[in-house]
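#onboarding

Welcome to the new folks! Below is a worked example of what a typical request in this channel looks like: someone posts a single protein sequence, and someone else replies with the predicted structure as tokens. Don't worry about understanding the tokens yet, we'll cover that in week two.

Example request:
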Amino acid sequence: MWDELCTKSKIQPLIDHNSTEGTESHRTSNFSAAIQALHDQFPDSGKVSTDPTELFAYAQSSYSQVPGLPHSVVVHVQSTEDVVNVVNISRAHLVPIVPYSGGTSLEGNVSAPPSGSICVDLSGMDKILAISEPDADVVCQAGVRWNDLNEVLREKGISLFFPLDPGHDATIGGMISTGCSGTNAVKYGTARGEWILNITVVLPSGEVIKTRQRARKSSAGFDLTKLFIGAEGTLGIVTEATLRLAPVLPTRVAVVQFPDTRRATAAVCDLLNRGTAIQCVEIIDELSIRVLNAFGASGKTWPEKATLFFKFQGSADAIRETSQVVESTISKHGATDYRLAADEQDGELIWQDRKNALFAALAYRPGSKGWITDVCVPVSRLPDLIQAAKREFEELGLVAPIVGHVGDGNFHALVLYQNDAERDTVREAVGRINRKAIELDGTCTGEHGVGTGKRAYLTSELGEGTVALMKTIKQTIDPLNLFNPGKVGNKLSS
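Example response:
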């Protein structure tokens, strides 16, 4: 079944289906019995699916170029109790289990292992369970989308928001599992900060734990919340979370051009330690500007130069002072055409171009697909990495617009390709850029997680001892190796 589906989809397996690597615990798996047990446990129509199209759809995400394998069965759950029941069936029949929620991940995080798996779909667990405005926190299920959460807060007239802003429609469970961030990271940090107060997790044993209480701080024992952040469902399945909220503050957008990306990134390095009220600072390279001008969604036409997009946050006086400091500082780095948005509507139009970068790039070469990089380095080394990437792409004749969260040293190149030969060239180029980032004391994955797409780089980035400790933790919590096996580390789940 798996070979037939992969052939039809033209997807090549990452691992030989007949290989036993990482599947020792699954050699006696009874998939038929597990699927029947799931039907018995969830008799309602549509709750359990073995439709081939659905099995493959839940193993992929829209913009990922990492090949995936279809699941054996998909179960649509509504509660933590449902997840416990699925986990117990998984364990009883030695069938792997893979969590899925928003389907926006990029590194093969939701693919089935070669042996097949139960996909537990948490997208239906989309309830906001409690909002505490005095405490500035919210309790919600894992399938809640961050943009929907913020919209609900706006509709209720609550001047608070959840500041982590990865890809549109990402869910809280997926954001926790990949250790996400987004454009707001320069001010608000990432999911590994203090925005996740606690999580409810179903362990491989079927036990349900909550990692801590709701207080803003605690020094009680190990920080188990962070153990599960970035674990990609290999240690437990996140079903609920208590999230810290931030006050909504006035925001203004600004934009400025530079002769090249090196001087633009140098200007940001100069700015970051000046105590300014910068919420976001994003870089778009010359090619991305050309692409956005051709896309035309905002109606604006920008000079084809490296461009910084800013968001300033605070009182009117704080924004005015920040704008003055920024304008003065960047002038030393060859900046031109600095512009502070006239009002909120003008700012939304300017920022729209930053948010449209992915779609504009895909439209630039009709019929293309795009491989998205996610390298991150210390900010002072970002100019070197961007220049190395641009040189790599130019020498190979690849079209690769660059956008990035320059304020924290993270950038994405959308490397376009149209056929298998180009894809092979892109994969090799991206590998060299990943290794270059690690050489510069950085990471191959700033915010997208490891999945199967980045696992080959984990040991060179973290070291053998660190990966060995991760493996020990995995084997202790999941001795049967049933939870999302093969993800995060190449040998982590073997």
